[in-house]
Amino acid sequence: xxxxxxxxxxxxxxxxxxxxxxxxxxxxxxxxxxxxxxxxxxxxxxxxxxxxxxxxxxxxxxxxxxxxxxxxxxxxxxxxxxxxxxxxxxxxxxxxxxxxxxxxxxxxxxxxxxxxxxxxxxxxxxxxxxxxxxxxxxxxxxxxxxxxxxxxxxxxxxxxxxxxxxxxxxxxxxxxxxxxxxxxxxxxxxxxxxxxxxxxxxxxxxxxx
Length: 209
What we know:
With 209 residues, the chain is an alpha+beta fold. The chain has helices spanning 40-57, 115-119, 126-140, 147-156; strands at 5-9, 15-18, 23-29, 62-64, 68-71, 74-86, 89-99, 164-168, 173-181, 187-191, 196-199, 203-206.
């Protein structure tokens, strides 16, 4: 756990700086998991965080593909997995988590929000919140043997479920209705020509129409 980060890493290798007032921590896991199902950890952790935050604060956190937690339409936190595999099994995985908690508006980048700004409570106890998140992840860990349960729970809390979205890929853009999430973490989008496009990476934006 860090008080601040000056050389954090985000998705796509982006550099990430994290000010004081948030939760910035990593969890080392050794799951009994085939490498093809590694992303289950990301979706399990997102749902566990949502539940823990809701239980402790009453805030209604929603989830956004692939790895964001949101309040309203603003980003509250994110999850990143790094791992090592041996053969077709996961040897270990590092779950990196960042969560905006007590920052003021001036400490946040555009499009981000903190729990403090939404709740009106000036200080949330970071240690209490961390313990709640760790306990919730631990109690959910057995769900790794039930991939459909993990994905169903994540999908029920998705902010873009059945909404029109646009996903920007490295060399393409996909626009359509967000229809489902697959067990491998892919987002299924129904395009305007009524085909289902499977997207496994990219940045998602919810369209106003």
